[in-house]
Amino acid sequence: MNKAKVVESMAKMTKMSKAACKDCLEAFISTVGNALKGSKSVVLTGFGTFSVMKRKARVGVNPATGKKMQIPAKKVPKFKPGKELKGMVK
Question: pLDDT tens track of the chain, all 90 residues?
Fold first, then answer.
């Protein structure tokens, strides 16, 4: 399901316009993104938790040349699903 399908589904469920639903979805994405930029986690009880994970620097292999290369440490977004979301999938 892509962004357009999510907006369409939200519009049907809420009986709001697609434009309003798109604005709401983009505001949600922006809010979560800004929180993660500040290394804060976003907890949506039942749905899940968005957080930032720190990856350590490591040595990798370039598949084209076979040479070893250093991969620097970095922060990456992480999502941990909540109990209710897990239950929906079963």
Answer: 999 999 999 999 999 999 999 999 999 999 999 999 999 999 999 999 999 999 999 999 999 999 999 999 999 999 999 999 999 998
H-state helical runs in the chain: 3-14, 18-37, 83-89
Q: Which amino acid is at 12?
A: K
- Give CA–CA dist 23/79, Å, rounded: 23
Q: Which residues pair with 33 in a beta bridge?
A: none
Rounded to whole angstroms, how far apart are CA atoms 37 and 51?
10
**Is residue 21 a contact partner of residue 7, using CB atoms and an 8 Å limit?**
yes
Question: Alpha carbon 49 to chain centroid distance?
Answer: 9
Containing 42, the helix (H) or strand (E) segment is: strand 42-44
Is the entire prediction scored with pTM above 0.85? no
Tokens found for residue 11: 């519009």
